[in-house]
User: What shape does this take?
Amino acid sequence: MPVVRDLRVLLRLPDFRRLLTVRLLSQCADGVFQVALATYVVFSPEKQTSPAAIASAMAVLLLPYSLVGPFAGVLLDRWQRRQVFLYGNLLRALLAGSTAVLILASVPDWLFYASALAVTAVNRFVLAGLSAALPRVVDEERLVIANALSPTAGTLAATVGGGLAFVVRLASEDSDAAVVLLGAVLYLCSALAALRLGRRLLGPDTTAGHPRLIAAVASTARGLVGGLRHLSQRPMAAQALTAMTLMRFCYGALTVMVLMLCRYAWYEQEQDGLALLGLAVAVSGAGFFAAAVTTPWAIGRLGRFGWMVGCTGTAAVLVPSLGLFFDPGPTLIAAFVLGFITQGAKITTDTVVQTSVDDAYRGRIFSLYDVLFNVAFVGAAGVAALMLPPDGRSAPLLVLIALIYAGVTVLLSRWARQERETAHETAE
Assistant: This one.
């Protein structure tokens, strides 16, 4: 399998292995912490969880994270990246430990969310630093392969972390706090793994001059406006981002629905609902992995927009046909399919943006991409909060999502035809 062969080549590079270890431990901890937050908000026996509560939690944890993201690079270009991984993960370990104490102390929710928000805010710096450091440990010839495999490996690590979190929660009495402490231990391990990298290995170069911090932040804000202007002149990238944002909206709404179904409709005992939610996360992660393996071949056969048409068209048909049963079996099948098509479309969108946008604007466009991705998810949670009944069974919401998928399919079909016509004209 080409993916396995490419990974074997990269793993012969010692510094790449060490940086990948930092990523895997860090994102595994992220998976643990995110599941801990979700289960605390949704499954705590003393809480009468509602879709509005879930939407509020997502807004608190994702929206500030998105606003910090575009400006993270301003500081990352000033700080040694190895130190960002070391101190960032040490800080997250400390904050996660504090969050566990807050859970045991049954403090007001706002204090719990403030602590959780601090953990996720640091996450933006660590993830951005991992991407920025990659060219320092991989030669230019292998950089494309490393860019493809490292984030996929990180996503799988987060999925594994989520699975560990479910196992610990089901096995422990003080379950929520125990899961958060597991995340703290993994953050600490990631920090210690960073010590195996040379302090100056990952850059940035200290010889490079930097403008004053306030000037750099203002320049970043102007740069984002310039990125939007550049995106408006690159219709293919703008089209792919539009489609992916709508798909992310659908995925977010369905996520809230599954959370509510596990909490109430399929909830005879706490363990039953948690086990089903853990299984849904696992099969969705399997769909992500299947998409990473299949998408390069599918794009070669169908074209980029053609493959996205297949993804959204499949979703438009399967969401109502499987979801309207509101039973665990069909819903788990839908979780795999939606994980597969969402990740397949995301990989395609990444490729379209990378190849359609000038290099000088690529970082800014991906920052905007990150904001759109998270805002769409939070917006979907808000819509779901308005439409979902307490047990999570909402045929109107499923129909709305299917219609959005169908509408995106029509748009993508038109753009796929334009892509083929452009390719044909170029060939002539």
Summary: The mean pLDDT is 82. The longest helix spans residues 270-302. Residues 10 and 146 are 7 Å apart (CA to CA).
